[in-house]
Amino acid sequence: MVLNNIEKLLEKYNNAETSLAEEAQLRAYFESDDVAPHLEHYKPMFLYFSQSQQEQYTKDVPLKPKRTKLYQWISVAAVAVLMLGIFIPNWGGETDPWEKYTAEEQQLYLETKAALAMLSDKFNDGTSSINALDLASENFNVGLNKASHIAEFSETTNKLLKN
Hints:
single chain; mainly alpha
């Protein structure tokens, strides 16, 4: 009767359906010396569970992280570099950026800017033409899709007429 009960508990244990009390019964059975021979292969597993339950972690866990002085100085240096990077470019005062270029360089810049604006305008016109071709391609694909429906209808009518 006891062996039959243990086998039922083992089946429930393998299906993960046992309660803690039933697992305690299984552990107590396999810790005893009178384990049935066909259940001997379960004994090391339950003995391991009993032994591992008694183990304790005895090493101290440090609660405060160790911060070195180097880490603090690196963060101070990073803030200083960021502050210098923000303030140095604005340090010279308000000057006209065109003053450092000659009149010829300024004229070349304005001509180049006009040429690039014209090129951009022409490029945008070409892009709109390509968009029209894309629209035509989409309409062509819709037509092909509808034509495939006609082909399916034709096949179906041919099958009906043959039968």
